[in-house]
């Protein structure tokens, strides 16, 4: 049955809940802007088709369950009809937040302050009427129960957040914030800001028109799903419109769907309920961890991919392999419907076998062994998988957010931070797997992190290996580590062995590929300045000075931040040396040699604070101690700057000397050797120097 109805009509005598197989609120700024522009630009006398709203009426058995306690009085005493939202919850959630922010705006107007909801009107409707129609009704006569017209069926962080942080119910206590609650808060802020601006520009009458548009002029194609329709399949199909479901969201729906397909002899009602709760709890924890850092929420698909690498056999084919495996091979209805015969011996514990006609025969001792039909995908496989997903989520978060993290030791924080700064590449699942195994010691993990960091620096930052170099090998080791089939020592030995591919028998580093890479940058005007490992390398050199002298002076976040007309790594000898000091200091070199000197490693200096690029052309004495004091000089800068400030002059010899010092640090820090001093000169592109 399909009809076109306005929001006012849809909310009349209906209660809506988002079922547990649904995702949370996923709309972000792009969808919110589209919604806002649709409302503002819609002529007030016209209707606008908003899309499909697909509902499934909740049965008496379901609404008499504990999840509908606060709504039962409306259903029984006032004949409200309860519905699950199968498709359209993103739009309905947005409407509810939008209406609530209109109410908040109207109530904040000075002439309304102190008035009751019954005495404040939007058009011809009081705030009290609007709240009861779209948001919340209090149960008389005690008015102790707040019944929400729209909410979530399960005890979900999103529902508590919606009630207390968005709709303003007092005394919420502590509320878990997730990836989805962050979206709810962003939507509230978006509408609050835009409505306030709109009110200041156009006045209260236009706000009332917006309210009328949203409640009466926007039309839904209302579709009520019949009882025998498969709502889970409908959900997957319908939610490919609008903001597409993530693979993690699709997987949750699929797993809950599968719990409904097992026969009663395979799983009891209590077991089915517990399994469904386990799935909901797992996804609640996962989305909490993914949204825990509000400034940098984590990708749910990246997490799901990493867990697949840890849990299942990795295959190197296409980027979507993991979800095809999960949804099309492993967790499929066919694997539940496809039954195999299982012999029940004296050890096997099973639930009551209801089919008394199953074949069975006596064993050789004369006792009878029953044969029962079991799904190819056992319920325990689902349970084990979701619990593994749940336990991995916190370690996934910690791997991205190690600093000031009480779950990690100070040394773990240090090395995880290094891995994030250097670019952890494809090793994050392996790092997380080391935490999933509770029997692995902190020191063993640190040993692993050190070897991974060395491998990344030597193979990718110096050796110029492809980004996928050996990734299949380490993905396989990730699963083996999680299963206990390999040790940390085994993996560290493998990492060391692969580095030997870049080292001669005397452990001397082969600089050929790196020189070719830097040479290409010189041709394009960059030299070492464009090396993708430069920030990390110079920062690590600075950190060694911090360990010796204390007092950190460079903030990594600011160091790698790109600012227009600002530099955080300076060419001491400038690329455009038009100052007399530089002309005199480098007068004996050709233009090509000057280019190599300016772009060489020893001429690049990390600054404690970024400064205007125009100052790079200043003379060396002025860079050390600027006369105008408009910016810090080297003598007041980073430890690296202070070290450079100790030079009386800056010339080609100083660039070579400091370059060699930096390469000595490289040898020390990453346990690698260069064949000779001449090899170092060649590495620095200064082999023309005496």
Count of runs of 4 or more consecutive helical residues: 30
The outline comes out as: globular
**Tally of distinct domains:** 4
Extract low-pLDDT stretches. 346-363
Strand content: 5-15%
What is the tally of beta strands? 15
- Rounded Rg: 33 Å
Q: What integer is the average pLDDT?
A: 88
The helicity comes to 40-55%
Reading side by side through the largest sheet, how are the strands ordered?
1-10-3-4-2-9
User: What structural category characterises the helix and strand content?
Assistant: alpha+beta
The major pleated sheet works out as: 6 strands, mixed
- Distance between the ends: 89 Å
- Identify the quaternary structure here: single chain
């Amino acid at each position: 049955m399909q009809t076109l109805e306005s929001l006012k009509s849809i909310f009349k005598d209906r209660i809506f809940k988002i079922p547990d197989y649904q995702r949370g609120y996923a709309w972000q700024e792009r969808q919110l802007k589209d919604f806002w522009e649709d409302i503002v630009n819609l002529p007030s006398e016209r209707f606008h088709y908003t899309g499909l709203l697909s509902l499934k009426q909740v049965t008496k058995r379901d609404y008499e369950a504990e999840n509908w306690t606060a709504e039962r009085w409306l259903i029984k005493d006032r004949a409200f009809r309860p519905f699950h939202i199968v498709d359209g919850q993103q739009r309905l959630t947005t409407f509810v937040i939008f209406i609530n922010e209109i109410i908040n705006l109207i109530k904040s107007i000075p002439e309304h302050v102190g008035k009751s909801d019954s005495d404040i009107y939007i058009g011809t409707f009081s705030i009290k009427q609007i709240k009861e129609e779209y948001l919340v009704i209090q149960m008389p006569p005690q008015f102790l129960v707040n019944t929400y017209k729209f909410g979530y069926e399960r005890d979900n962080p999103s529902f508590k957040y919606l009630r207390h942080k968005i709709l303003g119910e007092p005394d919420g206590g502590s509320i878990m914030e997730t990836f989805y609650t962050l979206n709810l808060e962003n939507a509230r802020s978006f509408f609050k800001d835009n409505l306030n601006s709109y009110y200041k520009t156009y006045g209260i009458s236009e706000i009332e028109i917006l309210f009328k548009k949203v409640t009466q002029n926007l039309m839904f194609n209302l579709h009520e799903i019949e009882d025998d329709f498969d709502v889970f399949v409908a959900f997957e199909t319908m939610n490919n419109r609008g903001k597409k479901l993530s693979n993690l969201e699709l997987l949750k729906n699929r797993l809950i769907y599968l719990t409904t397909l097992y026969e009663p002899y395979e799983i009891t009602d209590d077991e089915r309920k517990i399994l469904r709760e386990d799935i909901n709890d797992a996804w609640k924890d996962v989305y909490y961890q993914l949204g825990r850092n509000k400034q940098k929420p984590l990708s749910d698909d990246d997490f799901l991919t990493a867990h697949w690498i840890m849990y299942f056999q990795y295959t190197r084919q296409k980027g979507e392999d993991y979800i095809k495996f999960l949804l099309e091979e492993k967790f499929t209805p066919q694997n539940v419907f496809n039954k195999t015969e299982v012999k029940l011996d004296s050890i096997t514990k099973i639930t009551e076998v209801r089919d008394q006609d199953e074949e069975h025969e006596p064993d050789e001792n004369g006792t009878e062994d029953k044969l029962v039909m079991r799904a190819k995908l056992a319920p325990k496989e689902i349970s084990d998988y979701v619990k593994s997903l749940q336990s991995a989520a916190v370690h996934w978060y910690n791997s991205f957010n190690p600093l000031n993290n009480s779950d990690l030791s100070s040394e773990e924080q240090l090395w995880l931070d290094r891995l994030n700064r250097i670019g952890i590449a494809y090793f994050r699942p392996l790092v997380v797997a080391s935490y999933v195994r509770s029997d692995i010691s902190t020191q063993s993990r640190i040993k692993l992190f050190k070897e991974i960091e060395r491998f990344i620096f030597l193979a990718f930052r110096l050796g110029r290996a492809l980004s996928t170099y050996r990734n299949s090998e380490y993905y396989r080791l990730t699963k083996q580590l999680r299963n206990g089939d390999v040790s940390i020592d085994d993996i560290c030995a493998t990492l060391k062995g692969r580095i030997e591919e870049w080292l001669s028998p005397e452990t001397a580093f082969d600089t050929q590929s790196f020189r070719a890479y830097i040479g290409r940058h010189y041709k394009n005007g960059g030299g070492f300045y464009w090396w993708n490992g430069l920030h990390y390398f110079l920062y690590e050199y600075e950190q060694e000075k911090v360990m010796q002298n204390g007092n950190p002076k460079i903030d990594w976040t600011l160091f790698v931040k790109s600012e227009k007309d600002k530099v955080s790594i300076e060419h001491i000898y400038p690329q455009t040396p038009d100052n007399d000091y530089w002309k005199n200091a480098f007068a004996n070199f050709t233009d090509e040699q000057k280019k190599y000197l300016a772009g060489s490693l020893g001429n690049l200096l990390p600054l404690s604070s970024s400064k205007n690029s125009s100052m790079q052309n200043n003379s060396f004495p002025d860079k050390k101690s600027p006369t105008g004091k408009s910016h810090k000089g080297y003598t007041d800068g980073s430890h690296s700057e202070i070290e450079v400030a100790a030079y009386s002059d800056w010339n080609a010899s100083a660039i070579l000397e400091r370059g060699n010092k930096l390469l000595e640090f490289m040898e020390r820090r990453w346990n690698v050797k260069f064949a000779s001093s001449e090899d170092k000169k060649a590495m620095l592109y200064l082999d023309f120097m005496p």
